[in-house]
């Protein structure tokens, strides 16, 4: 680990005022510290933001606002989250381990870096880590890599389970910088790799996530998160699906669908949502709609199984959600 300056700002205004392009914010540290030890990330300055007043979970006129420093465990066990947004609680409970969920923050989870082995190995090229150096994953070991949103420059998969559930629900994030505050869709926060995979998100230098807002959506209480992985715990997704459905009698009126383990960012499946709307809530409808999940897939040598796994995971999620009625 390289030397760095360390400070503990006492307010949000102070934190964003002191931040510059070479600064990293430290919350739970469950990603940052690991990457600093590997020298994948080498910030010249680290600001410990754990003293900042960003730990509330509050119902508002917009929905449910969650401070960015709230720990994953506290969100997953919160009464309002479990009752009104079960897909979020389930996504969190499927993440990492109990110890890490106790430590990791919501904001940090949303901004965690990819688990691509080439990215984390500083002895090999990586366009995300060193722009223009190449992407060995394209022709190398790529079983865990993305099949949606990829480019010739990067095929790294986005790692967050929580982000998949939040994107499905159209969550927004509140951001604070030296120049003021703004609110954007979480979906728009994440950037596709294109020719600039080192630019992972739309945050400006020194900009801080202060809160996540789950929109008021009464039928989000009928939602589910299903994760398929190589082992039952402490493992990243091969495929996952976040689904929320509004029904009238036996007909699907509206659906929200996003998948993880498949894309370079959390992937919303608008075509699947459209194919479900107005259809009977039956396995046949789910099978037909899930075929649209394959639109635009770009499998690699070692992950050609992923598109079909995604389709099956989606059908499974819809069927399991049906059983909870």
Automatic annotation (TrEMBL):
Pfam families: CO_deh_flav_C, FAD_binding_5. Keywords: Oxidoreductase. InterPro entries: CO_DH_flav_C (IPR005107), CO_DH_flav_C_dom_sf (IPR036683), Diverse_Substr_Oxidored (IPR051312), FAD-bd_PCMH (IPR016166), FAD-bd_PCMH-like_sf (IPR036318), FAD-bd_PCMH_sub1 (IPR016167), FAD-bd_PCMH_sub2 (IPR016169), Mopterin_DH_FAD-bd (IPR002346). Residues 1-219 form the FAD-binding PCMH-type domain. It comes from the Bacteria. This is Xanthine dehydrogenase family protein subunit M. It comes from Paractinoplanes ovalisporus. The lineage of its organism: Bacteria, Bacillati, Actinomycetota, Actinomycetes, Micromonosporales.
């Amino acid at each position: 680990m390289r030397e760095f300056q360390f400070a503990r700002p006492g307010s949000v205004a102070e934190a964003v005022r002191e931040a510059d392009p070479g600064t990293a914010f430290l919350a739970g540290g469950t990603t940052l510290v690991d990457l600093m030890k590997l020298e994948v990330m080498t910030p010249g300055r680290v600001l410990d933001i754990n003293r900042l007043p960003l730990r509330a979970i509050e119902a508002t006129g917009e929905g449910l606002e969650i401070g960015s420093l709230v720990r994953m465990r506290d969100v997953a066990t919160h009464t309002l989250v479990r009752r009104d947004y079960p897909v979020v609680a389930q996504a969190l409970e499927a993440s990492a381990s109990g110890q890490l969920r106790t430590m990791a923050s919501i904001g940090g989870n949303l901004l965690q870096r990819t688990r691509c082995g080439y990215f984390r190995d500083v002895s090999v090229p990586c366009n995300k880590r060193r722009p223009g150096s190449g992407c060995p994953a394209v022709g190398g070991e790529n079983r865990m890599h993305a099949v949606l949103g990829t480019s010739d420059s990067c095929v790294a998969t986005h790692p967050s389970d929580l982000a998949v559930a939040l994107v499905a629900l159209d969550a927004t994030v509140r951001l604070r910088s030296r120049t003021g505050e703004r609110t954007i869709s979480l979906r728009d926060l994440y950037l596709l790799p294109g020719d600039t995979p080192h630019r992972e998100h739309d945050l400006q230098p020194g900009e801080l996530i202060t809160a996540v807002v789950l929109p008021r959506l009464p039928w989000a209480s009928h939602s589910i998160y299903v994760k398929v992985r190589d082992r039952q715990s402490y493992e990243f997704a091969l495929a996952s699906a976040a689904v929320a459905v509004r029904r009238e009698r036996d007909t699907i009126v509206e659906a929200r669908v996003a998948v993880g383990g498949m894309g370079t960012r959390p992937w919303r499946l608008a075509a699947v949502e459209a194919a479900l709307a107005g259809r009977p809530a039956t396995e046949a409808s789910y099978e037909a709609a899930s075929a649209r999940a394959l639109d635009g897939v770009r499998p690699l040598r070692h992950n050609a199984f992923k598109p079909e796994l995604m389709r099956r995971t989606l059908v499974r999620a819809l069927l399991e959600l049906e059983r909870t009625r």
